[in-house]
């Protein structure tokens, strides 16, 4: 049975407000240093210990929206229509990536019931529908917080003793996990006496260790540390929260390239693409356009209850003049948002201005480079996907696939703005013969564009050492080694055309070639495939087909959402905000 479970907290937010304001913890005195080493099961120290070992349910809030419960692996969801099996915390990252692929869509998460959840006291409950889950979630203390303490942990094993009212020892137990310790407390009566075999060790959120030798030291250590870290209890998985100080420091550290701008629901990216913004500590900001002109403005940030805001003010660049909410801060990327259909995406350009011609020449000559994406005047040249460049000494470059090799020349130089340019001349392939401006430089990835145009070239490094120790890439290559696959689903921008491919199969060969076969096993077309780990450490698959082939629409650089020996689930984000989805099922 499948039930939709989307943003259910909104339905009872006002209930939670009264629950939260009516259930604040009362102040409890901490034990004194000379306190007897036995403590009562409902004492301040015991309650602090119990909260420290409670089951944390905040890590999967992107799914259940409730920090006091956790869904047990494995389970399945549909994120924006894509079915995902979540068998570890890494699976939650896949959900986040699906949601982030499209910035302006309404993210819908469908949990496939039944599921098993674990409460803070490690009780397991089977949930059969969204109504049951909502009922339990209402019992959480929300607004981003829960009762458990995550900034400090016990180091096991720990031995505890129980006593009667006359303080005569009645038993002992050695616990080896949070669950053991929480269950130990669950079996106590409120008036029971317990004692801890000191010294014990605590581990703080930053990895440091702390030894305590008494109840008083233990209680004070937990009390003073419980709010020392961000427990990430909100519903934004993987914590995009940050401070004003962190943003200010990041902005002035590097130049920033404009990669997308939408103003009043009108996409202005073409006009401002790759403009360079330099934020200065004195509050001034300089924007350099693609022809090298400098445009001056002012910037400032402030912290609000809703997050960090940055105001931009220019005399000329009026499309930037707003107070923007910084709604996401990633490695090397900042996303800004303002009501009314306004958005800016910027990426860090530190490496671009540190890359001299010698450095880029050395990088290009290290290994061959695979074409991941290429656009001429905005049109994708998917016929070149999977082709490899070899940049050789003497200015000779080879462009090849499995059938032919094209020779040309290459050189690296600096333009007037001091940025590196890769000049390629290849008469037999005009699609790559341009002066390519370096626009992104990451581990195993290079991006180029042609200044003032809609031309783009993205290359992936293909070195043997990149994949020798990559178990995931090796696993996928083994799966695709001489195997045959049926196309079980294909849609372009959600327009399904699976039936057009139902009478054919793809045969993947170990050398990266593929064949398209009909029902009689006749080869009717050919292509190639290439699997790699991208600069964000995610797995991708390039599929390429002959131009003019009926399978040419399937040619793309796909993100691998799920893969096993029998099924592959792929997704490609398109320029217009939609996406293509391809599912392959192995034929035995």
TL;DR?
Helix content is 18%, strand content 41%. It has 588 residues and is of the alpha+beta class. The chain has four domains: 1-30 and 55-148, no CATH class; 244-348, Beta Barrel (Lipocalin); 352-463, Lipocalin; 470-587, Domain of unknown function DUF4822 (Lipocalin), CATH 2.40.128.
Number of helices: 13
Average pLDDT works out at: 82
Name the poorly predicted regions: 1-36, 235-240
- What structural class is derived from the secondary structure elements? alpha+beta
Question: Strand order within the widest sheet?
Answer: 15-17-18-19-20-21-22-23
The rough form would be described as globular
Oligomer: single chain
As for the number of domains, it is 4
What does the main sheet amount to?
Answer: 8 strands, antiparallel, barrel
Distance between the termini: 30 Å
Walk me through this protein's architecture.
This protein has 588 residues and is an alpha+beta fold. Helix 2 packs across helix 7 (215-225). It contains 13 helices and 41 strands. The model is unreliable at 1-36 and 235-240 (pLDDT under 50). The strands form seven sheets. The protein has an eight-stranded antiparallel β-barrel with strand order 15-17-18-19-20-21-22-23. It starts with a strand and ends with a strand. Helices cover 18% and strands 41% of the residues. The protein has four domains: 1-30 and 55-148, no CATH class; 244-348, Lipocalin (Beta Barrel); 352-463, Lipocalin; 470-587, Lipocalin (Beta Barrel).
């Amino acid at each position: 049975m499948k039930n939709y479970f989307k943003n259910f907290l909104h339905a009872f937010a006002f209930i939670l407000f009264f629950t939260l304001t009516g259930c604040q913890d009362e102040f409890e005195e901490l034990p004194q240093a000379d306190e007897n080493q036995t403590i009562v099961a409902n004492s301040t120290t015991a309650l602090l210990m119990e909260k420290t070992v409670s089951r944390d349910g905040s890590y999967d809030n992107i799914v259940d929206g409730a920090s006091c419960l956790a869904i047990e692996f494995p389970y399945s969801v549909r994120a924006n229509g894509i079915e995902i099996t979540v068998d570890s915390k890494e699976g939650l990252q896949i959900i986040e990536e699906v949601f982030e692929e499209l910035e302006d869509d309404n993210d819908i998460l469908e949990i496939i019931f039944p599921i098993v959840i674990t409460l803070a006291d490690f009780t397991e409950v089977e949930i059969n529908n969204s109504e049951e889950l909502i009922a339990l979630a209402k019992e959480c203390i929300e607004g981003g917080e829960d009762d458990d303490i995550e900034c400090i942990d016990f180091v096991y094993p720990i031995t505890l003793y129980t006593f009667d009212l006359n303080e005569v020892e009645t038993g002992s137990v050695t616990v080896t996990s949070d669950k053991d310790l929480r269950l130990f407390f669950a079996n106590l009566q409120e008036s029971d006496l317990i004692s801890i075999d000191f010294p014990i060790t605590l581990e703080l959120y930053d990895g440091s260790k702390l030894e305590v030798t008494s109840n008083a030291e233990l209680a004070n250590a937990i009390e003073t540390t419980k709010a020392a870290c961000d427990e990430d209890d909100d519903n934004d998985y993987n914590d995009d929260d940050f401070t004003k100080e962190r943003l200010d420091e990041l902005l002035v550290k590097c130049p920033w390239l404009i990669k997308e701008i939408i103003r009043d629901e009108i996409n202005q990216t073409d006009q401002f693409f790759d403009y360079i913004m330099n934020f200065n500590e004195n509050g001034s900001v300089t924007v350099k356009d693609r022809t090298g002109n400098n445009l001056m403005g002012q910037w400032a940030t402030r912290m609000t209850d809703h997050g960090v805001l940055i105001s931009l003010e220019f005399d000329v660049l009026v499309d930037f003049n707003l107070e923007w909410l910084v709604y996401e801060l990633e490695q090397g990327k900042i996303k800004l948002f303002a009501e009314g259909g306004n958005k800016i995406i910027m990426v860090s350009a530190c490496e671009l201005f540190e890359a001299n011609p010698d450095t880029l020449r050395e990088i290009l000559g290290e290994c061959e480079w695979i074409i991941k994406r290429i656009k001429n005047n905005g049109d994708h040249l998917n016929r070149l996907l999977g082709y490899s460049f070899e940049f050789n000494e003497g200015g000779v470059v080879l462009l090849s696939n499995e059938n032919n090799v094209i020779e040309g020349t290459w050189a690296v130089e600096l333009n007037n703005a001091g940025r590196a340019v890769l000049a390629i001349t290849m008469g037999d392939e005009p699609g790559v013969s341009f002066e390519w401006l370096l626009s992104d430089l990451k581990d195993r990835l290079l991006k180029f564009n042609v200044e003032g145009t809609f031309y783009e070239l993205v290359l992936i490094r293909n070195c043997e050492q990149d994949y020798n120790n990559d178990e995931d890439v090796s696993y996928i290559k083994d799966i695709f080694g001489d195997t045959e696959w049926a196309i079980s689903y294909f849609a372009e921008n959600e327009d399904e055309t699976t039936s057009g491919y139902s009478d054919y199969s793809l045969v993947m060969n170990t050398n990266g070639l593929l064949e398209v076969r009909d029902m009689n096993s006749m080869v009717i077309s050919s292509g190639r495939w290439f699997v790699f780990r991208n600069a964000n450490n995610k797995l991708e698959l390039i599929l390429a087909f002959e131009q003019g082939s009926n399978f040419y629409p399937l040619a793309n650089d796909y993100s691998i959402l799920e893969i096993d020996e029998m099924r592959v689930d792929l997704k490609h984000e398109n320029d217009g905000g939609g996406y293509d989805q391809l599912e392959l099922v192995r034929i035995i």
